[in-house]
Write the structure tokens for this entry.
Amino acid sequence: MKKQILTLAVVAVAGFGAFVAPVNAAGTAVELPKRDWSFDGALGTYDRNQLQRGFQVYKEVCAACHGLDRVFYRNLTALGYNEEQIKTIASEYSVVDGPDDEGEMFDRPARPSDRFVGPYPNIQAARSVNNGAYPPDLSLIAKSRAGGADYIAALLTGYEQAPADVEVMAGMHWNKYFNGHQIAMAAPLTDGQVSYADETPTTVDQMAQDVAAFLTWAAEPHMEVRKRMGVKVLIFLSIFAFIMYRVKRKIWRDVH
Ligand code: HEC
């Protein structure tokens, strides 16, 4: 019986390990380069300029294939855009609305209250133009992949020549950090692909870092509030503990 429990425990631990560690086809863990993020640590915050740059990369590059369905245009106020700017950004997209008085659906420019308009009408349409692969919605990708922002930045900069002894399948690309290494997404970034208003040089590495920060914000827009609340709670708890300690001392003062 004891032996069975022990075996079960070992299997459970091994299974959990396999689940949390990103592994490649050979079964060895991929070491992700750890980058510095403004939002690291208990007091970290988002860098608004970086988020705006990352949004630009998403809009001009990634949005051709990836949706951002859980984000509304109005949420962009958090990046420092004003209402007019957001109206302009939204109006560049077109959404299907209706039915009108004649029962017809119609297209209209998106409004700040709309969700980000995705690139494809449905999953089948997405697969048919991407060699059968589905470009996932990026709203929660930073939360759903181990390594979060580090993983996204690594993936975007991880395209390499495949090792000589490996045959890359048709329509696939070799990426050092992708699980199994063969990914249907071609390297989406090239140096100088976008031009930033703040004149930050647009190297692949810089754009990868910026868009990874933007996608982290998209997945966790309330991170700063959460962290601030955590600090307040800790301060409250330490004061409370101190008061309770004094109260206890007072109540038990005469008991020897
Ligand atoms: C030409 C279309 C295209 C563009 C442009 C594109 N992607 Fe992709 N992307 C894909 C496809 C297709 C997949 C699915 C790959 C697979 O499963 O093999 C994918 C997968 C991904 C994944 C998921 C990887 C995983 O771990 O499953 C991430 C993250 C991603 N893309 C980020 C981006 C970012 C960020 C950009 C913009 C810089 C971008 N993509 C631009 C087509 C594209």
About this structure: The pocket of heme C is lined by residues 57, 61-62, 64-66, 130, 133, 135-136, 141, 145, 152, 155-156, 183-185, 188-189, 211 (CB under 6 Å).
